[in-house]
Amino acid sequence: MTDTHDSHIKDYYEYHSEQSAFFDHLAEVNKPVDAGLDEAAALNWCESMHELTGTWSADVWSEKGWW
């Protein structure tokens, strides 16, 4: 493996670790979860927020008025 390859793998796991922590926290705060929530749309929106801000922190999104 190359250093670049290792870096991509590290980034992948960090991204998904942050994503999992975000959704775990969201589930804790919002129990019971709305049955009508379109999870695919929610995930796409959250991922777009991550792309815009570089973080999974809803606090950061809230500061920008997006949460």
Features:
single chain, 72% helix, 67 residues
Give structural notes.
- The chain has helices spanning 3-29, 39-53, 58-63.
- The protein has 67 residues and is mainly α.
- The chain has one domain (3-63).
- It is globular.
- The model has no long low-confidence stretch (mean pLDDT 78).
Provide a brief overview of the structure.
By secondary structure, this protein is an all-alpha fold. The protein has helices at residues 3-29, 39-53, 58-63.
Give a count of the beta strands, DSSP E runs of length 2 or more.
0
Alpha carbon gap, first and last residue: 40 Å
- Helical segment tally? 3
Q: Roughly what is the average pLDDT, rounded to an integer? A: 78
Shape: globular
Rg is 14 Å
Sequence of secondary-structure elements: HHH
Largest sheet: none
What fraction of the residues are assigned to beta strands by DSSP?
Answer: under 5%
Tally of structural domains: 1
Binned, the helix content reads: over 70%
Contiguous low-pLDDT stretches (5 residues minimum) are: none
Given the helix and strand composition, which structural class is it?
mainly alpha
Would you spell out the secondary-structure blueprint of this structure?
Blueprint: H1 3-29, H2 39-53, H3 58-63
